[in-house]
């Protein structure tokens, strides 16, 4: 009925493609404009010297059949015919005398924690009971709150009442304080691997609940294959993607968004404009700083309440099969210089569950370090210094890997290194952050309908509009955006 209505989408990441898919399913036409030569945005992967480096999916919420998020992935083709890898453990903390594993099997996890730290029995009981409670939570994926009637809102709250009660109990407790309740340092170190310590404790429960219920697996093929399936679905439904064509400006006429000015100098007109990119890019560049959003502005100005996540992502080619090692682990190191200070822990993972990511008999290993955007941005002002620092850091990390794992001695070669500046350059990520604002004890829930005050027919979507962000948030808000457009058309 609305096939003559045209939607222009700025950004070919998962959020933009999901919005485009639902637009086409609703009978609209859709064109995506992507500044890069490939789709995916931050959900991407790249090749180096015969290896494939996966840059995004550590786990994907929605991999369990029958769950609400799984339905969206099925509707958009993201999991069509895909095997799901369910890691045996979420992470391993490698200690001097004993190791700790966060097992996927909840009973095995509880038994293991009690064996490692019997003195923490009471807290372990509370932890595992909370995780069990959070496993029943189902987000509202079909409609945003602003499109729900009072009965739908009540139904959602009643269905999730137990979880909401637990959330209230732990919303003002940061993980940094919660982990002090455990006397065993291996347990508190494991928490650091699961969610940032500034986040509210219920974020920890949510993550473990998804993992232990088989609802946070890893799709075969990784991030690039994941986004390629979304792209194939979008194009298969009749959508069009124009690569290497960045949006430079949203054209506003008499308070109505009517088109996009593109990097090739052309102007494309449409009935609705959807931005599926970082809101900072929308306000500062596409709208030329002429509009300010109070909800985002107060978050940009309060980093304590709304911390951002960025990292250094260092990849290594290993001339050995690492499949006998934990897929994801953290361990103590002698100490290496990082951002002008010493760090004494290192987090690494390998990708032996994906044989195609490395040559036969070899492995891909990645180290990831929480990073300071300002430090790397300043260093990048001197390109030669920036390059030398990355080389030096990669060499130091390789040395620590070989020291911790003797099997790697003389077999570890740096492949690539991404920094916060990389995320900013490739994806337009605000302060190099690959995740939206997190839920902390000092934050307020973001209630935003994706509209810009003073502009009609312009809709913003993506992970930034649903804390704490990530792929599920990008997909849900993409669906919601089309729901809002269809309501405006009715």
Helix content: 25-40%
Number of helices: 16
Which oligomeric state applies?
A: single chain
Task: Count the beta strands.
Answer: 20
Query: Can you give the mean pLDDT?
Result: 96
Largest sheet: 7 strands, mixed
In spatial order, strands of the major sheet run 8-7-16-17-18-15-19
**Number of structural units classed as domains:** 3
SSE class: alpha/beta
Low-confidence stretches: none
CATH architecture of the largest domain: 3-Layer(bba) Sandwich
Q: DSSP strand (E) fraction?
A: 15-25%
Distance between the termini: 11 Å
In CATH's first tier, which class of the largest domain applies? Answer: Alpha Beta
Shape: globular
Radius of gyration: 23 Å
CATH superfamily of the largest domain: FAD/NAD(P)-binding domain
Under CATH, the topology of the largest domain can be stated as FAD/NAD(P)-binding domain
Overview of the structural elements:
- The chain has 16 helices and 20 strands.
- The protein starts with 5 loop residues before the first strand and ends with a helix.
- The chain folds into 3 domains: 6-44 and 60-81 and 222-304 and 442-489, FAD/NAD(P)-binding domain (3-Layer(bba) Sandwich); 87-213, no CATH class; 311-430.
- The strands form 5 sheets. The protein has a 7-stranded mixed β-sheet with strand order 8-7-16-17-18-15-19, sandwiched between helices. The protein has a 5-stranded parallel β-sheet with strand order 10-2-1-14-20, covered by helices on one side.
- By secondary structure, it is α/β, with parallel strands linked by helices.
- The chain is 36% helix and 22% strand.
């Amino acid at each position: 009925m609305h096939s003559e209505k045209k939607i222009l989408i700025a950004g070919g990441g998962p959020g933009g493609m999901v919005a485009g898919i639902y637009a086409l399913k609703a009978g609209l036409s859709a064109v995506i404009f992507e500044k890069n030569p490939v789709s995916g945005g931050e959900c991407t992967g790249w090749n180096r010297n015969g290896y494939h480096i996966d840059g995004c999916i550590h786990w994907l919420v929605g991999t369990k059949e029958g769950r609400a998020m799984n339905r969206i992935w099925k509707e958009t083709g993201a999991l069509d015919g895909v095997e799901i890898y369910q890691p045996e453990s979420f992470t391993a903390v490698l200690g001097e005398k004993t190791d700790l594993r966060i097992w996927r099997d909840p009973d095995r996890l509880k038994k293991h924690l009690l064996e490692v730290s019997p003195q923490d029995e009471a807290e372990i009981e509370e932890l595992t009971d909370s995780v069990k409670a959070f496993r029943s939570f189902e987000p509202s994926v079909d409609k945003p709150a602003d499109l729900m009637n009072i009965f739908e809102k009540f139904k959602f709250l009643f269905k999730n009442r137990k979880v909401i009660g637990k959330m209230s109990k732990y919303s003002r407790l940061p993980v940094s304080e919660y982990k002090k309740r455990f006397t065993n340092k291996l347990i508190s170190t494991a928490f650091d691997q699961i969610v940032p310590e500034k986040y509210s404790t219920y974020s920890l429960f949510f993550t473990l609940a998804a993992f232990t219920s088989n609802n946070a697996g890893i799709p075969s093929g990784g991030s690039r294959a994941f986004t390629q399936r979304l792209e194939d679905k979008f194009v298969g439904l009749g959508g069009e993607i124009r690569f290497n064509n960045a949006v430079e400006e949203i054209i506003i006429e008499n308070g109505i968004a009517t088109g996009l000015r593109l990097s090739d100098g052309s102007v494309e007109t449409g009935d609705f404009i959807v931005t599926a990119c970082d809101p900072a890019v929308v306000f500062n560049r596409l709208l030329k700083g002429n509009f300010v959003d109070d909800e985002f502005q107060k978050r940009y100005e309060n980093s304590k309440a709304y911390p951002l996540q960025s990292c250094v992502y260092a990849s290594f080619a290993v001339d050995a099969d690492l499949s006998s090692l934990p897929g994801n682990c953290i361990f103590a190191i002698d100490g290496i210089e990082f951002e002008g200070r010493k760090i004494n822990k290192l987090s690494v993972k390998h990708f032996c569950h994906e044989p195609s990511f490395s040559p036969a008999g070899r492995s891909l290993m990645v180290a990831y370090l929480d990073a300071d955007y300002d430090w790397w941005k300043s260093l990048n002002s001197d390109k030669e210094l920036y390059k030398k620092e990355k080389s030096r850091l990669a060499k130091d990390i390789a040395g620590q890997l070989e020291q911790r794992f003797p099997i790697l001695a003389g077999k570890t070669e740096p492949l690539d290194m991404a920094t916060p500046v990389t995320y900013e350059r490739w994806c337009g990520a605000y302060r190099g952050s690959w995740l939206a604002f997190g839920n902390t004890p000092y934050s307020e829930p973001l209630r935003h309908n994706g509209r810009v005050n003073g502009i009609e027919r312009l809709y913003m979507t993506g992970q930034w509009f649903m804390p704490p962000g990530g792929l599920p948030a990008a997909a849900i808000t993409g669906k919601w955006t089309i729901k809002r457009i269809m309501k405006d058309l009715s």
